[in-house]
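not sure who needs this but someone in the group chat was asking about SET nuclear proto-oncogene from Chelydra serpentina so here u go. i didnt clean anything up, its just raw.
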Amino acid sequence: MSAPAAKVSKKELNSNHDGADETSEKEQQEAIEHIDEVQNEIDRLNEQASEEILKVEQKYNKLRQPVNHPQVSALLGEEDEEALHYLTRVEVTEFEDIKSGYRIDFYFDENPYFENKVLSKEVEIHLQNQLKSNGNLGRT
């Protein structure tokens, strides 16, 4: 026959169970605190990402509005302004003799206004400060 089972009082069972409950509650509390820490870090990173995204959006919004001078804006029609939304960058290259002039290259994304990816404008300065302008800025 098997040995009789040891008798354990209800008090002993409850005290062991209470200890397990305390350990379980402590582990749960630690887990909750850890989750809070992780969530706080995620919130911090999201805030940082939002700030950086805003800076990038502001930078490119500014680049998308290359014509903000009132005198230049007055020369442009609505279609001209719409075409400038496709402008991605502008480069100015001075001639070897910087006093003789410069070239401006306008780089565009694909757009419905013209086929060229780059439109160029050359400005030559001749003796007596006379200007001569060449370029492919006409519409195609």
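also The radius of gyration is 37 Å. if thats useful
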